[in-house]
Automatic annotation (TrEMBL):
Organism of derivation: Aureobasidium uvarum
Protein name per Swiss-Prot or TrEMBL: Asl1-like glycosyl hydrolase catalytic domain-containing protein
Cited Pfam families: Glyco_hydro_cc
Keyword Signal: yes
Signal peptide per UniProt: 1-20
Length: 547
């Protein structure tokens, strides 16, 4: 139904253009059998691929999640993934996986980078016994109903990467692993040669199973040109298409500035190459490209429902951390183990919510009469982008905050990644029924959170620290990375800056703590001016701001 609407809108759109209508109105989704897939967050971005007249090689897609979201290209096979053993994901898995199978999915993917334990990396970091247990409990029941893909491992050196996978297969006795699933990132110098070696190494340990490469790309540890990236991609795609044991692959990723153009209105040049290389015929290459734009914009207009089930990937995380783990792969086990031991991701994640059990007697926790009024979002930022309005629509449910950090981009209806290449944080300043203010701040892809209006964790409450140095504002709340700052001396420094009106730099030094280890951060200072109007100073790490 939705697709039919898109086509109608699309053809109206096309009338304005110079090419003939027939030529363009024929660009409809068509299935093909190519090995290429799309790794996406925004289902609308699957639409430009695999249309008639493109000789498309793109036949499937996945979003690190269990359901594709609305607006997904009907020509593509959706492949669900059980991202980790987290109960919010395993709880829905059986029904989502079965629903996908009923709709034609033939494959299911196991965990995402369980071998990598790096906070904010977008990896699932699962200890071996837990991974085996979760596989047996959640994946095995689907053996024979779909083909099961192994946990997707990084190209990190032992004990990560293929070593981890080998150990998993050794430990998971009686498990049905139908194909091997790997990721690869490195720099342009390592390039295609290292890529092929890694795929061959996976083949060598696969026991004859097919190999999928569900994320790959050049990392940005060494800058590369668009031409270098394109020639890397062409070389490895051609090679993979020739290897019988490589069944499927997905470049990272189908988003703006990568396979989509920067405006998100159609394929980028690289996207065109990915879609059709090496068979782009001159007759069909230009016409579909612009009609795709029309289809896409029409379809995003038509789909008013916000897709709720799209996994916000590790897009940025991967790039931000790849250089870290690829370099660790070439270093000693000593540095690898320090990498592994820094695996505070899951514990850090639950900080705000788990602390609700130890809620102290703060005024807000005792509200009863007025709790029906619930939570009001005063201001919200995703990275340094103001998303206050969209956050209110997306996250306030029955007066509570319900936030799924796996789906932020789609929940906030963002067409573009606000800070490509970095793990972003969602920071929300909210008030309760009694007008106390609190802060929620977490990294993308770190979990699903509910802040119950009648049991707001005391840790969320903002401190009340009076102005000093003659400052004429009231600082309401401060966040650095994903950490709320409550230190009086930091408030003092901020008041000092307001009083002097000098510029200051958003830095770990200013805030006194690294609020998101290993990643570039956004700093937010919410304050009320002399007229009590809520304002904010927001900037990225290293940038200067001024009251
Ligand atoms: C998931 O695995 C981790 C080990 O990495 C374990 O600590 C945790 O309890 C597991 N979660 C569930 C819900 O079983
Ligand atoms: C099980 O995994 C551990 C590492 O977690 C590894 O040392 C061991 O060799 C594996 N066992 C088998 C049978 O592969
Ligand atoms: C909270 O603030 C709003 C707006 O300033 C005001 O209308 C309301 O009465 C206040 N509520 C309480 C309980 O103080
Ligand atoms: C919120 O907390 C109250 C009190 O603990 C509880 O009765 C209520 O069921 C909770 N609501 C939700 C949506 O969890």
């Amino acid at each position: 139904m939705k697709f039919a609407t898109s086509v109608v809108l699309a053809s109206a759109f096309l009338l304005q253009d110079s090419l003939t209508i027939e030529e363009r109105a024929t660009a409809t989704p068509v299935k093909n059998t190519g090995k290429r897939g799309l790794s996406f967050n925004n289902p609308a971005y699957t639409m430009p691929f695999s249309l008639s007249g493109q000789n498309s090689q793109v036949s499937w897609a996945y979003n690190w999640y269990q359901t594709p979201g609305s607006g997904f290209n009907p020509a593509l096979e959706y492949v669900p993934m059980l991202w980790s053993n987290a109960s919010d994901l395993t709880g829905q898995w059986a029904s989502n996986a079965q629903a996908a199978i009923n709709s034609g999915s033939k494959y299911l993917l196991g965990f995402n980078e369980p071998d990598l334990c790096l906070p904010g990396a977008g990896s699932s970091c699962i200890e071996m016994p837990s991974a085996v247990k979760a596989w047996k409990q959640y994946m095995e029941p689907f053996a024979g109903k779909a083909l099961l893909g192994s946990p997707a491992v990084t190209n990190g050196g032992s004990p990560l990467g293929l070593t981890w996978l080998q150990n998993f297969m050794g430990n998971c006795t009686g498990c049905h692993i139908d194909f091997i699933n790997i990721h690869w990132y490195s720099n342009k110098w390592a390039g295609a040669n290292y890529f092929k070696q890694q795929v061959q190494a996976a083949h060598a340990m696969s026991g004859g199973r097919p190999v999928w490469i569900t994320e790959f790309g050049l990392d940005n540890s060494t800058p590369y040109t668009a031409a270098e990236l394109q020639s890397f991609l062409e070389e490895v795609m051609e090679w993979m298409d020739e290897q019988d044991y490589v069944h499927r692959y997905a470049y990272f990723m189908d988003t703006t500035g990568a396979l989509m153009n920067s405006g998100g209105t159609g394929m980028s040049d690289l996207g065109n190459v990915y879609n059709s290389y090496p068979e782009v015929s001159s007759a069909s290459s230009s016409a579909p490209a612009s009609s795709v734009t029309a289809v896409l914009s029409a379809s995003s207009t038509a789909s008013t429902a916000v897709p709720s089930a799209v996994f916000s990937s590790s897009e940025s995380a991967i790039f931000a951390t790849t250089s870290t783990y690829t370099s660790s792969s070439r270093t000693t086990s000593a540095s690898t183990s320090s990498l592994t031991s820094s695996s505070s991701k899951s514990s850090a994640v639950s900080s705000i919510l788990s602390s609700s059990s130890s809620t102290k007697s703060v005024p807000v926790a005792t509200q009863t009469a007025s709790e029906a009024a619930g939570i009001t979002i005063l201001s919200a930022y995703f990275a340094d982008k103001d998303v206050t309005t969209a956050a209110t629509a997306a996250f306030v449910q029955n007066g509570n905050l319900v936030i799924n950090t796996y789906t932020l981009t789609s929940a906030l209806s963002l067409q573009q990644d606000p800070w490509w290449g970095v793990v972003k944080t969602l920071s929300v300043l909210y008030s309760d029924a009694a007008n106390y203010t609190h802060i929620f701040s977490e990294a993308e892809q770190s979990g699903m959170y509910t802040v119950n209006a009648s049991a707001i964790p005391s840790s969320a409450q903002t401190p009340s620290i009076a102005a000093s140095y003659g400052a004429s504002v009231d600082v309401v709340g401060v966040v650095w990375g994903k950490q709320q700052i409550k230190t009086a001396s930091v408030f003092g420094r901020i008041y000092y800056q307001q009083a002097t009106k000098w510029g200051f730099e958003m830095s770990t030094q200013l805030f006194g703590v690294d609020g998101l280890w290993g990643n570039e951060k956004v700093g937010i200072v919410w304050y009320r001016d002399a007229s009590k109007v809520l304002k904010s100073l927001v900037a990225r790490e290293g940038q200067w701001v001024k009251f």
